[in-house]
Amino acid sequence: xxxxLFFISLLVSLRNVEGAVSPSPLLNFDLKPxxxxxxxxxxxxxxxxxLGALAGLENETRNFNNTxxxxxxxxxxxxxxxxxxxxxxxxSMDKTVxxxxxxxxxxxxxxxxxxxTREKLYKGLLLYADKKESLNHQDxxxxxxxxxxxxxxxxxxxxxxxxxxxxxxxxxxxxELTFGKNLNEYxxxxxxxxxxxxxxxxxxxxxxxxxxxxxxxxxxxxPDYFPFMDNARDGETRRQLEFKYNIRGSxxxxxxxxxxxxxxxxxANLMGYPTHAHYILEDRMAKNPKRVKDF
Length: 295
Hints:
This protein has 295 residues and is mainly alpha-helical. The protein is 66% helix and 3% strand. It has helices at 2-15, 33-55, 68-86, 88-91, 95-115, 119-129, 137-151, 159-185, 202-206, 222-231, 235-246, 250-270, 276-281, 289-294; strands at residues 189-192, 216-219. A two-stranded antiparallel sheet has the order 1-2. α2 (33-55) packs across α6 and α3 (68-86) packs antiparallel against α5. It is elongated and about 75 Å long.
């Protein structure tokens, strides 16, 4: 979410720069819901074709470029293709477009989980790894990380447990993205007087909507909230707005949050870890919860 906010801020800034560089062709702000769905479908079809070819290679023909690197390139190309049609979820004024982009994002994230649970792909990568070709440090690290990601998605477990890990991970993806959608779609505002706007520039104040009684409406949307929090001199008003911002979507999201925590714990246990923290930190710099606490 923070990354998306950064890009939104960047795009707003570029609009105000004369002769600014044109947006990437990957970002199309005029996409219709059906076009978003088709773009996501086409991206997956291209990915499936390449992954199918990779899985079907004869072992004697396997090398780093057509196996490990091809796998990485395919997923990266898929991610690049998906970024465009999912981005409107965070910026479009049309709810039908935002909803379509959300569905695309959920599907793409769940697809990523599914790819790392495919036995034919994993076996193909293992067959190549078993050749023990001489690789430079970067290539060897890439192969290691790809195989580790498969293991962290259930390979090494029996078929039943692996299927449960896959099911739970896909559900967590849905919960996480719905949580984010609830934040994006949540609407609330704070009504303030002119005196409470002290510190805000005139162009900000002039574009605000007003109530019949003459008060100004500060929404929780990015163009209102952040400039207000950065510039308003009235600390109590900032506190009130921040409180509203921090409880966005809380009614629906508390249940999603609790369910995601429970599912993450079950995934960790299935994978042989006592907690989600042990599972997630194993592949990070800290390595384990004790080191984090000691730090």
